[in-house]
């Protein structure tokens, strides 16, 4: 497999500390019912896991977790997380019906087009058990996000601190897939309604959350 060693990895890992990020990811996860729908004995896949911040946040919950990402560079950063695998979310190296839960936080908006998003969701469904749950949190197409993106991309505001500069550089680096994702959010909801049971759907200030169930 070709390793992804993009500048993007560096920008992403410089943005938030693991400590800050795992709390943020855990709080997002708690917005949907995945944790209450699964038990400690269940196998959970943290897909597009990056530095494994979500997996790390779940370490005290007792789940059996597998963390998967395409970037080896990000995967190896947190030595405290075990059970990691380098993978492509478009072709998951797992058997059918293996996981009770899958978590995708900030992954779909990195895919190249809507077809890839559909392929990834089909793969997620394939490896999920019947009555398993897929939690997704991705950028929401909201006014708040539009204002934030305008400020960070089109004004000089990003120059005020190294933190805002990191955000600016990160958005520039992922601009293409990020805006493609946002332009397809209605299409995505239509697709999800036709192919999954949506148990939970909420649009926050800048993030959209789904908990999807795979029916029998
Ligand atoms: C914004 S990061 C999300 C990381 C993590 N979920 C979090 O919330 O901290 C997106 C991740 O998607 C990964 N990625 C992009 N395309 C991928 C693919 N086709 N298969 C697997 N991972 C991919 C990138 O390497 C990156 O780590």
In words, what does this structure look like?
- With 216 residues, this protein is of the alpha/beta class.
- It has one domain: Vaccinia Virus protein VP39 (Rossmann fold), CATH 3.40.50.
- It is built from 10 helices and 7 strands.
- The chain has helices at 7-15, 18-29, 34-37, 53-57, 72-75, 114-127, 143-154, 162-173, 175-183, 185-195; strands spanning 43-47, 64-69, 84-86, 99-105, 128-139, 197-203, 207-213.
- Strands 3-2-1-4-5-7-6 form a 7-stranded mixed sheet, sandwiched between helices.
- Helix 4 (53-57) links the parallel strand 1 and strand 2.
- Helix 1 (7-15) runs antiparallel to helix 8 (162-173).
- The longest helix is centred in the middle third of the chain and has 14 residues, at 114-127.
- The termini are far apart.
- It binds S-adenosylmethionine.
- Residues 4, 12, 21, 25, 48-50, 53-54, 69-71, 74, 87-90, 105-107, 110 line the site of S-adenosylmethionine.
Care to give the gist of this entry?
With 216 residues, the chain is of the alpha/beta class. It has helices spanning 7-15, 18-29, 34-37, 53-57, 72-75, 114-127, 143-154, 162-173, 175-183, 185-195; strands at 43-47, 64-69, 84-86, 99-105, 128-139, 197-203, 207-213. Helix content is 43%, strand content 22%.
């Amino acid at each position: 497999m070709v390793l992804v060693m993009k500048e993007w990895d560096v920008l992403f890992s410089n943005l938030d500390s693991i400590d800050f990020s795992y709390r943020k990811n855990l709080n997002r996860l708690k917005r949907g019912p995945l944790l209450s729908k699964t038990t400690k004995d269940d196998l959970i896949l943290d897909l597009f896991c990056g530095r494994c911040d979500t997996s790390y946040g779940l370490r005290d919950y007792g789940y059996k977790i597998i963390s998967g990402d395409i970037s080896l560079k990000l995967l190896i950063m947190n030595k405290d997380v075990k059970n990691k695998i380098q993978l492509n979310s478009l072709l998951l190296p797992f058997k059918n019906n293996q996981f009770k839960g899958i978590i995708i936080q900030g992954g779909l908006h990195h895919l190249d087009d809507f077809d890839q998003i559909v392929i990834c969701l089909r793969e997620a469904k394939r490896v999920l058990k019947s009555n398993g749950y897929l939690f997704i949190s991705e950028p929401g197409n909201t006014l708040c996000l539009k204002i934030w993106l305008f400020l960070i991309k089109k004004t000089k505001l990003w120059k005020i601190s190294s933190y805002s500069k990191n955000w600016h550089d990160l958005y520039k680096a992922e601009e293409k897939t990020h805006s493609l994702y946002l332009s397809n959010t209605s299409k995505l909801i239509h697709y999800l309604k036709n192919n999954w049971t949506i148990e939970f759907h909420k649009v926050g200030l800048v993030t959209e959350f789904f908990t999807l169930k795979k029916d029998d």
